[in-house]
Structures are given as C-alpha cells and as structure tokens.
C-alpha cells in the first residue's frame, strides 16, 4: 500500500497536470488535506510530507487533533469544512483559522462577535447549494449576493470566497457544470465590488474538473489517506 507521503506526492502531480490543462499556474491551487476520521499520527505524516493546511468536519474532532498536535499549531492552518451549528460558534471562533461552511448571516455574526481580538480575522467562505439539492446545506445562489455583502462588513471575519459540494457526476464534463456555476457566482460578486480570491471546490473524485473551472482550494481526503474507517454523513 502506498504511504501517505507517496499519495501526497501523486496528488501534487495530479494538481499540476490539471493546472497545465487549464493553463493555470500550479501555485494558483492550494491543497487542503481533509483529515476527518483519521488520527493525529496521520496528520503528522502529512505535515512531514510538507502539508500545512488541514480540514475537519466536526468541531470537537478538530479541536482534539489540534491539541494532540499542539507542537505544530503555529505552523499549521485548520479549516472547518463541516456544518456549523450556532451553539458551536464560540469554540470555532477561538480555535480555527478558516470556516468554509457559513450559510447564514446569524452564524457569521456570532463568529465575528466571538473571534478573540488578539487573533487575526477568521477567514470564511459562504457555502452555496450549487446543485440545488433539497437535502444539502448552503445558500441558494440567489441569496448569495446579499449575504456576502453583509458578511464582508463584519469586523471579526474576512470573507474570502465561496465553497460548494456539488452533486456527484459520472463524467468530467458533468462534473464541470456546477463548478463553473460557482465560479460564475464568484465573478459576479467581484464585479459588484467585493474582492474575493477563494473558490473552495473539488474533492478526491472531482478535483480535476474543479481545477479546470477555477478552483483555488481543493479539499482532498481519501486520495491521500485511503477509504475512511467509518462512514461520514
Ligand atoms: C470529506 C470531505 C472532503 C474530502 O472528500 P474526499 O472524497 O475524501 O476527498 C471534502 N470536502 C468536504 C466538505 C468533506 O466533507
């Protein structure tokens, strides 16, 4: 079985090839290593392989891993990529560097109010339900502009861009459609005067399509660590 370090090396090759195909500089795409369900030892191996950005779905699991890796905290960035309930905003505001899943103004206001003043603003993305799935969280595309303007004005936050988890599609062309829609939405916000630089889209299965459509941050777990030990909803 390939090691974590070998998988990471392979993944950077895949990112490079997708960037080449998209005529984009390879440094325009950042890898977020998704560590949910994997242990602190696995995260440390990814760190030793050169990775510095880690994504967690569950607040408590993320906080526990940060504690187990406290010696690396100054050199690592932790991103919350799972749903965030209002009763968990304080610990997130205090511990995380990024939140990708802001989908309500009320959550953003709490995060801003609760961000400790000695820390830099919390970096946030708005999650968009880009495929319009009834069961998925995220803002409807038509709601994004108003929420983005309000979130951009909050002092404890820095709005960086948009995030989506599109409905799975079997073909590359099919995968490109929702990613293109998210990129179009971001471009419209920037035309309206915001200065957003982040398109958080693309996972192990659809990363190449996401990069072709302008992803700046891809969130990858299983292509690095293998299948997850327990199912995640
Ligand atoms: C689990 C997860 C990922 C990573 O998915 P893989 O298929 O393991 O690469 C990316 N983004 C979110 C929001 C996730 O929950």
TrEMBL record:
MF terms in GO: pyridoxal phosphate binding
Origin species: Roseateles aquatilis
Keyword annotations: Pyridoxal phosphate
NCBIfam families: YggS family pyridoxal phosphate-dependent enzyme
Entry function: Pyridoxal 5'-phosphate (PLP)-binding protein, which is involved in PLP homeostasis.
Domain of life: Bacteria
Family listed: Belongs to the pyridoxal phosphate-binding protein YggS/PROSC family.
Names of required cofactors: pyridoxal 5'-phosphate
Residues of the Alanine racemase N-terminal domain: 26-229
Organismal lineage: Bacteria, Pseudomonadati, Pseudomonadota, Betaproteobacteria, Burkholderiales
Protein known as: Pyridoxal phosphate homeostasis protein
PTM sites of type N6-(pyridoxal phosphate)lysine: 36
PANTHER family given in the database record: PROLINE SYNTHETASE CO-TRANSCRIBED BACTERIAL HOMOLOG PROTEIN (PTHR10146), PYRIDOXAL PHOSPHATE HOMEOSTASIS PROTEIN (PTHR10146:SF14)
């Amino acid at each position: 079985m390939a090691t974590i370090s070998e998988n990471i090396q392979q993944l950077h090759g895949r990112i490079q090839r997708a960037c080449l195909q998209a005529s984009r500089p390879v440094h325009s795409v950042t890898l977020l290593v998704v560590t949910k369900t994997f242990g602190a030892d696995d995260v440390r191996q990814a760190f030793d392989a050169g990775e510095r950005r880690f994504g967690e779905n569950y607040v408590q699991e993320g906080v526990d891993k940060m504690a187990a890796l406290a010696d690396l905290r100054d050199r690592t960035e932790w991103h919350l990529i799972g749903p965030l309930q209002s009763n968990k905003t304080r610990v997130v505001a205090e511990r995380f560097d990024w939140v990708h899943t802001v989908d309500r103004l009320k959550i953003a206001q709490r995060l801003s109010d609760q961000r400790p003043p000695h820390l830099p603003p919390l970096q946030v993305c708005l999650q968009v339900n880009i495929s319009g799935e009834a069961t998925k969280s995220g803002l409807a595309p038509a709601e994004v502009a108003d929420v983005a303007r309000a979130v951009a004005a909050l002092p404890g936050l820095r709005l960086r861009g948009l995030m989506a988890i599109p409905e799975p599609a079997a073909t590359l062309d099919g995968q490109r459609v929702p990613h293109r829609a998210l990129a179009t939405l971001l471009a419209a916000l920037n035309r309206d005067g915001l200065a957003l630089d982040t398109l958080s889209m693309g996972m192990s299965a659809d990363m190449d399509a996401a990069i072709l459509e302008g992803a700046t941050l891809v969130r990858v777990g299983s292509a690095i660590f293998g299948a997850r030990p327990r199912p995640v909803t």
